[in-house]
Task: inverse folding
């Protein structure tokens, strides 16, 4: 983990208020899907933590949703801009601890880190099944990157405007699995958790530092308090307390 | 060659830069970024007699040039801090540290001070009578001169180490509290703790923090801190650790000119983990550019 200046290689709007940004720079420390970076945005005091969507030693990409003034400012960044980031942060998913028949479940802006995980698994010779849930057609993110690695995710929308009508958990009923990797809003994680025999769940929290110093994002687990930023964001099924 | 050494209540520090309690954990996370031995000292995360989980989430809210926190003194408790955290820190940092303690009764302060007194790498005991995050007790000691004096005397009674009382700025007369602590035997004063603040989420129409209110820190509070350090330094004859929004070498020098013998750096560590190292590295250059040869010479120089 270190502070690093990355150069914005590209930025484009993926869908409505969701943007896709790629960076070049020293990214060799990124070691697992599910890790994140903490981005300094000019004019804002605290950094913005965003999950890594794709990485290699010299590049990373992120997809982020505009949720406030800070991410609004990020969306105005331009190619060539130098960005101050802390990279990499968090534990990430550990596929070596996964089951033999896993399924990947993502909700909304939880899709990018799940793509990162799927790509990692494809690189290991697996072909994971993926479920991506959204509110409605307006929110559905492009699945192009999944398709490029040979995966055709099951899409669910609350209103049935795209894919299956219902929640990601409705799609899970149609699948066989012994392990779940999930990232998405907390109510979704809780619902998925209750169906999952075992698995890893990536959480989101308001945080200040992102590297374990401030205790701003501590949550209670069966094994004591853990910092979402440093001990997470991925927690294991058996330790999670709702 | 400029001289950054200062004497803090009998402790000789290589430089006045001290990461502030609650923003530096027990050093471990920052040792991944740089060699901690460059620092003057470290004020460890606030310790209470019993382990505390702290307040519900969210605990953090951003502000213009600063942040609110309502962590609520999360810590593993006195025994774990001494058995594990302080020992681990001794491996990473080879100088005396500032042990920050907190409590909800006189007994708890005394219990913490008694144990911290026996820790070999504790150089100073810093008594937090000011944390605004805790519903019962924590606040009250620091807002009343008599109870501030009572805590000071009780802690002084069980330790031979220098005792710094860490004051809350959320009072009408900071000088009266500081003088009460001095009269009760305090060896120094730390100030300021965070200012009580609040933010409201416009979409949810509710406070951002689960605890509703939290401590405001960051560059926005620096002028308030300078003012209070100045006022207190003119009124007491014990050294001051000045803190509140420090993030540059110019801030360090300004705070010392206001009357601080050493400074603590808080929120800035969370935004740029290298802040304290950069301040230590940059201080000689900043001193030279201002014609300062010995840092000790400028303490309280502003009339």
Result:
């Amino acid at each position: 983990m270190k502070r690093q200046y990355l150069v914005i290689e590209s930025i484009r709007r993926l869908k409505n208020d969701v943007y896709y940004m790629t960076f070049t720079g020293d990214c060799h420390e990124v070691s697992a899907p599910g890790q994140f970076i903490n981005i300094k945005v000019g004019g804002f005091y605290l950094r913005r933590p965003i999950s890594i969507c794709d990485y290699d030693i010299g590049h990373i990409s992120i997809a982020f949703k505009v949720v406030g003034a800070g991410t609004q400012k990020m969306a105005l960044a331009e190619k060539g801009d130098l960005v101050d980031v802390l990279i990499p942060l968090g534990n990430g998913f550990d596929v070596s601890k996964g089951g033999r028949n896993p399924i990947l479940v993502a909700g909304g802006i939880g899709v990018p880190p799940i793509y990162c995980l799927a790509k990692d698994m494809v690189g290991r010779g697996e072909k994971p099944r993926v479920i991506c849930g959204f509110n409605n057609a307006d929110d559905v993110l492009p699945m192009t990157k999944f398709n490029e690695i040979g995966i055709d995710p099951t899409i669910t929308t609350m209103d049935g405007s795209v894919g299956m009508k219902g929640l990601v958990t409705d799609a899970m009923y149609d699948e066989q699995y012994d392990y779940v990797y999930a990232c998405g809003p907390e109510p979704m994680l809780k619902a998925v958790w209750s169906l999952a025999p075992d698995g890893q769940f990536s959480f989101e929290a308001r945080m200040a530092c992102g590297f374990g110093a401030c205790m701003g994002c501590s949550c209670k687990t069966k094994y004591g308090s853990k910092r979402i930023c440093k001990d997470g964001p991925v927690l294991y099924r058996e330790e999670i307390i709702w | 060659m400029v001289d950054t050494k200062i004497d803090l209540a009998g402790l000789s520090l290589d430089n006045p830069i001290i990461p502030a309690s609650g923003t530096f954990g027990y050093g471990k996370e920052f040792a991944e970024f740089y060699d901690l031995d460059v620092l003057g000292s470290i004020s460890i995360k606030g310790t209470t007699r019993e382990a505390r989980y702290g307040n519900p989430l969210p605990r953090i809210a951003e502000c213009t040039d600063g942040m609110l926190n309502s962590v609520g003194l999360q810590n593993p408790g006195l025994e774990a801090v001494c058995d594990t955290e302080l020992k681990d820190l001794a491996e990473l940092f080879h100088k005396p540290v500032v042990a920050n303690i907190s409590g909800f009764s006189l007994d708890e302060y005394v219990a913490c001070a008694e144990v911290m007194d026996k820790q070999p790498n504790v150089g100073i005991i810093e008594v937090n009578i000011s944390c605004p995050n805790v519903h019962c007790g924590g606040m009250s000691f620091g807002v009343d001169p008599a109870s501030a004096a009572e805590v000071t005397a009780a802690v002084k009674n069980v330790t031979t180490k220098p005792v710094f009382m860490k004051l809350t700025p959320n009072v009408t007369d900071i000088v009266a509290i500081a003088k009460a602590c001095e009269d009760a035997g305090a060896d120094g004063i730390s100030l300021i703790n965070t200012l009580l603040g609040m933010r409201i989420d416009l979409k949810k129409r509710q406070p951002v923090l689960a605890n509703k209110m939290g401590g405001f820190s960051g560059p926005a509070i620096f002028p308030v801190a300078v003012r209070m350090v100045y006022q207190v330094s003119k009124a007491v004859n014990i050294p001051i650790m000045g803190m509140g929004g420090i993030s540059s070498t110019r801030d360090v020098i300004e705070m010392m000119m206001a009357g601080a013998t050493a400074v603590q750096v808080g929120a800035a560590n969370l935004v740029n983990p290298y802040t304290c190292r950069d301040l230590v590295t940059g201080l000689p250059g900043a001193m030279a550019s201002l014609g300062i040869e010995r840092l000790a010479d400028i303490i309280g120089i502003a009339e």
User: Anything to note?
Assistant: Helices of chain A lie at 69-74, 111-123, 144-148, 168-172, 186-195. The mean pLDDT of chain A is 96. Residues 6 and 184 of chain A are 27 Å apart (CA to CA).
